[in-house]
Structures are given as C-alpha cells and as structure tokens.
Amino acid sequence: MAEFKPFRAIVYNREHIDIGSVVSPPYDVITPKEQDLLYQRSPYNIVRIILNKEESDEKYRSANRFLKQWLEEGILLMLDKSVFFIYEQEFTVDGNNFTRRALVGRIRIEEFEKGVILPHEKTLSAPKEDRYKLIKATNVQSEPIFGIAIDDGNIESLTRKALEEVKEPLFEFSDENGVSHKLYHVSEIFYNEIEEAFLDKKILIADGHHRYETALRIKREYEREPNYDPQAPYNYILMCVVSSKDRGLIIQPIYRLITIEKKYIEKLMELAKKIEKLEDLNKINYKMLSKNEFIMVIFTSILYIELNNIKNERTSVQILHNEIIHNILEITEEDISSKGVIKYFKKLDEAIENMKENDLLIVYNPPTPEEISLISEKGKILPQKSTFFYPKFYSGLFMYP
What we know:
By secondary structure, this protein is of the alpha+beta class. The chain has 13 helices and 19 strands. The strands form four sheets. Strands 1, 4, 5, 6, 7, 8, 9, 10 and 11 form a nine-stranded mixed β-sheet that branches. A six-stranded antiparallel β-sheet has the order 14-16-15-18-13-17.
C-alpha cells in the first residue's frame, strides 16, 4: 500500500558546523523565547528557515535567502545519492529508559480516502497556509513529519537488522531534555527490502497533519498541469516512520486549561466520585486513569470523575470532549477553533502555574497507538491536540528538495 523510497537529502556539512548548534525542535513547538535562543546559538541554525523572525511574507523570502546562501557557502550539502536514514533516540520517561528508532525516507502522498495514510487529528487553515508559503518560497520540505507503520513486526526487525550493519552515526547530539539523537546511513543492501516491507503497510500520521495536508495541496496543484510527472519530488513527503511495535513509542497527554463559570464548577463537583485537597502534584497521575476516568483541578481541589455507560469504541479524549467539554461545559467546536477557549500545556507543572481563578485543569490518559489507528481506519478523527508523542524528531538533520 505505502510507497516508501530513499531520497536525495540536503544535510549540514560536518566540516563547517557542530550539528548540536544548528538543529531545533519542530517549528510548531518552539516558543518565542526558544526562537531567540536558537537564533543566538548559531548563525546557521535551521530555525532561520523553519520559523524565520521576519514579519509577514518576508519571513518566507528570508528563509529562502538563507537556504540558498548556505548551499552556496557549503554550509549545506546535497548528497550525491538517494538514501535511507535511521534516526535513533534514547531517552528517559518516569525513570525508565527507552530507545525509539525511525526509518527516514520519502513516502508517496495519497488522498486520505485510499486508506493508506491515516490522519487522526483535526487541522486548522492558518498553519497550513503558513507551511504552504514556506514550501513554495524555498522549494524544499525542511522538516519531516512523524508516521507510525501499522506493523506486524517486520519493519521493527528490519530496522534493527539494518542498524547492526552501521558503524558510526552521521550526526549525533543531545538536546536540552537529555534526549540522545543519532542519525545513521542505511546500507544500500537493505533498500529493496525496506521498500518491499512497506508495500502492505498503512501509515498513521502521528505528528505533522498540517504539513501533510499542505503537501497534498501542492501535489493536487501539479496534477492539474498538463506536464504533470507522477514520479517528481512533489508527489512525496519527508517522513520519519516508527513501527507500531517499537517500545519507545511514547504518547503523553496534553493538559487542558479552561476558564469556566461557577454553575459549571458546581456541576462537576456533583459529578465527582471523590474530591481531595490539592497538596501533592504526584496525585495527578494520568497513568492511573481508565479511558472513562478524568482528574480535574479547580481552585485548590482535585476532582476524580468517572463516566459510566460510555461506548467502548471511543477513546479517552473523545469521551472528554463529547461528554464533558461539549455536554457539561457547553463549549462548542466553534468556541475551541475560533475563540481559543482551551489553553494547552505539555507539562503539568506549567499548566498549574498558569491557572487563574475559575480555571479548570483537565487530565486524561491519552489513547494508545492501537486505539488511534482503529479510529483512523474507520475514517474518524480525534479532537485537536489529543496526543503528545515524546520525544520530537528534531529539524535540521536532513531536508528534502
């Protein structure tokens, strides 16, 4: 089903740069403060391309100037041959050590109706327009998206086998969170086997829904032209693909903070099966929750809420939005998408720090990769910001022209 191929990558020249100084997190998780720090870290940091500081459309033109300049100066190089990479990350979560490995290549862009590429989250028009303008200005895909191969185990074992044939990484660095990142060239002897392994696979988009839909828009534009070439680069998107069997496939929740009226606070108090005083953040543990259980923090109290008579086919975040956010709090999709009534946080302590009077903090246990794929295969999607895949694949290790 999926057509996964090697690609002729643009990479940084190791003779001129320290890779740790020029990479960055994905554009959509970079705060303004982090953007400033990345600009200061190196005059060649990839942030100047993926999240340029210039105003309005000038930022896209500026990004293109940096790209061209760095290629001319030899800071960036285009590889002579098409390649597959293995991107390995080693990290710690709750005291446990994990390793996650991804195959990096280009995958053919398909319409969602074909059921080959599976989305799981809603998208917004503004981020898609932003990425569209960047790609049109630079004519490169400057960041990979994150895909999960619904796997019977052969892609995971193939990735391990290919890694055994590699001696040293092309690039290696550690980020501010202590995550180790290593990028390896895959030996050409595995290329055919890799391509064949994907032919019967479906790919779930983990991160990068806006970028995928942007690439799909560009492909559609070319398809309308009389000289359309089905093998041209615009038919593919750069992707890091992790096996669904990979033990390092970690999903964390995204904490929701909502300002609500007193009448809704009273409703939630009545619904709670247990109420405790907020004294220890360790009591707010999403891992202890089933998919119909939620922890909510309001004022100085912790509310434990369990919803009964819930359909099993729904995930925790669907239950949260349908039964609590929409039905009990009476917040509509329009309120969420246009009015920004929900604030999202990756870290619990940051959410607590930002709480104000009448703010409600909601904690849920995120859906598993298996649950997400089942929902996606049925043609359904989850609410925006349902999942936080940790850690992120960094930008700057490779680009796809």
